[in-house]
Amino acid sequence: MKNSYPLSHRTQEPESGVLYVVGTPIGNLNDISPRAINILKNVSLIACEDTRQTKKIMNKFSISNNLISFNKHNSVSKTPKIEEDLKKGKSIALVSDAGMPGICDPGEDLIKAVKLVGIDVICIPGACAAITALVSSGMPSSSFLFVGFLPKKKIEREKILLEISENEKTTIIYESPHRLKRLMKDLYKLCGGEREIEVSRELTKRFEEHIGNNIHDVKSFFEDKEIIGEITVILKGTNKKKTLEFNELLLKSELNDLINAGLSLSGASKYLAKRYGIKKNIIYNLR
Q: Is pLDDT at 29 greater than 50 in this prediction?
């Protein structure tokens, strides 16, 4: 394993045999750092999520270098070759289409893999949509929960949404434009309309937008609109007492719906107990 030293004691960057995790702009290309430009210009090669997106940065700052694609479709097959190149002394920069590699992309697996074989990893920090949106929201930020993109499978999605609704910390969610309306409906159902929320769209770009106040207002704002652009949602943590009261009403409503649909009280209670991880007798006694 290599020895690690403070940056001030390291040789001139980039060093041989080092994987550089390079943060790139999330919209405005001028947000890239001089250090990141130096790394991208001088490493042996750049592993990027989409070569077309990375070329936009390279063209803007007159960078000429070798590019290889590294994304969710080819990460498993490309990782061994990147490891081999690093062991041979090549310096490699890892970039995503926007923001910090490793956040909701396969860069996380590459970083873990090369560290396991003793290769140095150095992060060149840059913009991150999650932190940019959080700071812009004005909500509590000293402690927060980041969940990234929600699962697509219904049961997994419902489980994490329930956890989010009951969490006392500010939560950061990434969402695609075509699923935002569904998310707002689900949050309204689980959190009520008064919970504070802010939806940030197209961060650092020309049409950057922050839509906030509460779930009811934001849900109404997007109801009849076509939604485009990258979306980051900031949800304020719950007041625990209010959430317990609200979820009791929610459970009671679902229990009644199931009974009206033909299930017995016992059967409906058992189903909801399994779905939400709550003791059956608690739900049974709501009737």
A: yes
| List of residues 6+ apart from 280 with CB closer than 8 A | 269, 270, 273
**What's the length of the chain?**
287
Report how far residue 67's alpha carbon sits from residue 69's, in angstroms, rounded to the nearest whole number.
Answer: 7
Residues 134 and 188 in one domain: yes
3-state helix, strand, coil in the chain (%, to 5): 45, 20, 35
Max Cα-Cα span within the chain: 73
Entry pTM: 0.80
Reported as a single tens digit per residue, the pLDDT across 235-246 is 999 876 555 555
CATH number of the domain that residue 123 is part of: 3.40.1010.10
> Which range marks the domain in which residue 271 is found?
242-284
Contact at 8 Å (CB) between 172 and 134?
A: yes
Answer whether residue 111 shows pLDDT above 80: yes
In terms of Cα–Cα distance, which of 155, 153, 160, 151 is closest to 272? 155
